[in-house]
Amino acid sequence: MIVKSIIVLAFLFIVFSLFSALYTMAKDKSKTHRTVKALTLRIAGSIALLVFLLVMYNLGYISPHSF
Predict the structure, then answer these.
(1) By the number of CB atoms within 10 A of the CB, which of 26, 42, 54, 63 ranks highest?
(2) Nearest Cα to 46, choosing from 16, 5, 2, 4?
(3) Residues 6+ apart with CB under 8 A from 57
(4) How far is 55 from 67, CA to CA, in rounded Å?
């Protein structure tokens, strides 16, 4: 149950970062790099989630559904 909660929180972080980048791209007219930082966080979060899923699968904590 804890693993699933971590996965959901990671997805929420990724979506929040994406919308944060969208907001700063639309509203921020200055020369700051806030959009680039938000998108970098989104990519880093996605990579971290992928690595986390692979480790949890290899350790046997999660498994794919079987039909």
Answers:
(1) 42
(2) 16
(3) 63
(4) 23
Residues in the chain: 67
- pLDDT tens profile 8-52: 999 999 999 999 989 888 888 777 788 889 899 999 999 999 999
Burial tier of 9 (Cβ tally within 10 Å: 0-12, 13-18, 19+): exposed
pLDDT at 35: 87
What's the distance, CA 40 to chain centroid? Answer: 10
Amino acid letter for position 30:
S
Element (H, E) at 17: helix 2-27
